[in-house]
UniProtKB/TrEMBL annotation:
<feature type="binding site">
    <location>
        <position position="362"/>
    </location>
    <ligand>
        <name>Mg(2+)</name>
    </ligand>
</feature>
<comment type="subunit">
    <text>Homodimer.</text>
</comment>
<feature type="binding site">
    <location>
        <begin position="260"/>
        <end position="262"/>
    </location>
    <ligand>
        <name>ATP</name>
    </ligand>
</feature>
<feature type="active site" description="Proton donor/acceptor">
    <location>
        <position position="127"/>
    </location>
</feature>
<dbReference type="InterPro" id="IPR004372">
    <property type="entry name" value="Ac/propionate_kinase"/>
</dbReference>
<keyword id="KW-0963">Cytoplasm</keyword>
<keyword id="KW-0808">Transferase</keyword>
<feature type="binding site">
    <location>
        <begin position="187"/>
        <end position="191"/>
    </location>
    <ligand>
        <name>ATP</name>
    </ligand>
</feature>
<feature type="binding site">
    <location>
        <position position="7"/>
    </location>
    <ligand>
        <name>Mg(2+)</name>
    </ligand>
</feature>
<keyword id="KW-0418">Kinase</keyword>
<keyword id="KW-0547">Nucleotide-binding</keyword>
<dbReference type="InterPro" id="IPR023865">
    <property type="entry name" value="Aliphatic_acid_kinase_CS"/>
</dbReference>
<protein>
    <recommendedName>
        <fullName>Acetate kinase</fullName>
        <ecNumber>2.7.2.1</ecNumber>
    </recommendedName>
</protein>
<comment type="function">
    <text>Catalyzes the formation of acetyl phosphate from acetate and ATP. Can also catalyze the reverse reaction.</text>
</comment>
<comment type="pathway">
    <text>Metabolic intermediate biosynthesis; acetyl-CoA biosynthesis; acetyl-CoA from acetate: step 1/2.</text>
</comment>
<feature type="site" description="Transition state stabilizer">
    <location>
        <position position="220"/>
    </location>
</feature>
<dbReference type="Pfam" id="PF00871">
    <property type="entry name" value="Acetate_kinase"/>
</dbReference>
Length: 379
């Protein structure tokens, strides 16, 4: 099958055409500056026209069979990928308040495809779906129930497509059936999240009501005392200013003056104290969470690193592993330094828990999920 994978943001649209039989990427691209007025496409419909033009050659040979959309928020309703129809699109739209930057853009992407290729089946793949198995004691905040009932304030978790994909590949690499696999999976990109996987299912994850909670990220603070927000508001900061502060001007960028892990590691190695402290804060918090999730899953059979930093930064992986000695974890420093696109074990033979690097591929996961949904629908 030939699947167009769409990742639609508020001002950008990433796409890939994939052959699900050969797992080959046949085309990909990025349309930027949508709706910004300076010569970019007017709206998501115009962006889809550009995609269609860019794909003309590819599609002349063989048309598309389906479209798979990355949708950020599936709320409490969506626990797996679904075939899109008008009702589903409206349901995604009703979740807009929970993901104001993302879901509206995802809906625009869906509607643009519907307008352009009405006959093409579309599938929504949700970033939150894998975490629908969180038990109540993990998803509930200790605040009045009325806030959950009125606004849906609870933990949802994100990066689910990646965590699920990586969990499956890690189990495969270790020869353990995924339904019997306990692991702690660290997705370390610009966004960072950790998932506790028990018997193949997500039972806890570090991102919560929004992707701001949890670990230190590129530009996001992760956990902090909620009173800080109230304090800053009383100092005269507006809600928008606080939102920007915590989502765009915090994390590694605030600590090290940079959110590129390569630059931070280089700076720390040449004696930059701020960079070294940024690495210490980030690796310390992550190690603390890994220890907690090892307990949560009843003993992990693997610790898994993925995404930009997890797959590529041997220095950062080493810093985290150095803090996990109490769990009997040690890396094979040569194996850790190997650069590869393959899933691999990087722990020492006598490490109490194997440590893995498993490259994530959200587009491949979305294409696979789309294929599965389409095949299950009687036509
Ligand atoms: P996104 O969440 O935007 O998809 P990525 O998964 O691409 O992000 O991860 C981005 C992060 O990965 C950045 O901090 C970047 O510095 C880091 N990164 C990418 N390549 C390397 C590398 N070779 N060595 C160290 N860090 C890397």
């Amino acid at each position: 099958m030939r699947v167009l994978v769409i990742n639609s943001g508020s001002s950008s649209l990433k796409y890939q055409v994939r052959d699900t039989t050969t797992d080959e990427v046949q085309a990909n691209g990025l349309i930027e500056r949508i709706g910004e007025g300076n010569g970019g496409p007017l709206d998501h419909g115009a962006a889809m026209d550009l995609v269609a033009t860019e794909l003309e050659g590819v599609l002349a040979r063989r048309p598309l069979d389906a479209v798979g959309h990355r949708v950020v928020h599936g709320g409490e309703r969506f626990s797996e990928p679904v075939l899109i129809n008008n009702e589903i699109t409206r349901a995604i739209e009703r979740l807009n308040p929970l993901a104001p930057l993302h879901n509206p853009a995802n809906v625009l992407g869906i509607r643009a495809i519907t307008a352009k290729w009405p006959e093409l089946p579309q599938v929504a793949v949700f970033d939150t779906a894998f975490h629908r198995t969180l038990p109540e004691h993990a998803w509930r905040y200790a605040i009045p129930d009325s806030l959950y009932r009125k606004y849906g304030i609870r933990r949802y978790g994100f990066h689910g497509t990646s965590h699920e994909f990586v969990t499956g590949r890690a189990a495969q690499l270790l020869g353990i059936p995924v339904s019997e696999f306990n692991a702690v999976v660290a997705h370390l990109g610009n966004g960072v999240s950790l998932t506790a996987v028990q018997s193949g299912a997500s039972i806890d994850t570090s991102m919560g009501f929004t992707p701001l909670e949890g670990l230190v990220m590129g530009t996001r603070s992760g956990d902090l005392d909620p009173s800080i927000l109230v304090f800053l508001q009383r100092q005269g900061m507006s809600a928008d200013e606080i939102d920007k502060l915590l989502n765009r001007d915090s994390g590694l960028k605030a600590l090290a003056g940079d959110n590129d892990m390569r630059a931070i590691v280089d700076a720390a190695q040449s004696g930059d104290q701020r960079a070294a402290m940024a690495l210490a804060v980030t690796s310390y918090r992550l190690a603390k969470y890994i220890g907690g999730y090892h307990v949560a899953v009843g003993g992990a059979q693997a610790i898994v690193f993925t995404a930009g930093i997890g797959e590529n930064s041997s220095a950062f992986r080493q810093l985290v592993a150095d803090r996990l000695g109490a769990l009997g974890i040690s890396l094979d420093s040569d194996a850790n330094k190997v650069r590869s696109k393959q899933a691999r074990v990087i722990s020492a033979p006598d490490s109490a828990i194997p440590v893995l690097v498993v490259p994530t591929d959200e587009e491949a996961a979305i294409a696979e999920a789309t294929l599965k949904v389409i095949q299950a629908v009687p036509r």
